[in-house]
Design a protein that fits this description.
By secondary structure, the protein is α/β, with parallel strands linked by helices. It has helices at residues 6-16, 26-32, 52-62, 74-79, 82-90, 128-135, 146-151; strands at residues 21-24, 41-43, 68-73, 95-100, 104-105, 111-112, 139-141, 162-164. α7 links the parallel β7 (139-141) and β8.
Amino acid sequence: MNAMTLPDALDVIHSQRRDAVVITTMGAARDWQKLERHPKDLVYMPSSMGQGPPLGLGMALAQPEQRVIVVNGDGCMLMNLGCLVTITAHAPKNFTLIIIDNGVYEVTGNQATLGAAAKRAGNQPVHYADLARAAGFEEVYEFDDAQSWRYEQEIMHDEGPICIV
């Protein structure tokens, strides 16, 4: 089975977003714009590393009946790990955080993040699902391939906060 690419992951999100606000940043924002546009897309790219989840949290708290899905890269996640604790402290039921873990900063030339196995002692990558659980996320899911995620795609709309890696 082939590893899931960013476009594969975005296709799963796009096909099951329903009426959710979808916030994308950096590499995800670039590729999200290639898909059919939706009036609730927020492509939040300029200088936004780490800022997608807090923005989404504010929207989710302000509009509790509106599902908010934030698509965040692993590099962006490393820029603002503290937001995981803030999200779970407020625990919005309408919030889904999706972390695209590919081990690189795509927008700046695919340099390895410091969370990638190649940059870490013992070649063990940062495990974002464990970070989310440690921060208080009770609903955490991991997918390595698009087919498995398509089978479980409804979890994006379960009661949150939800984290999908």
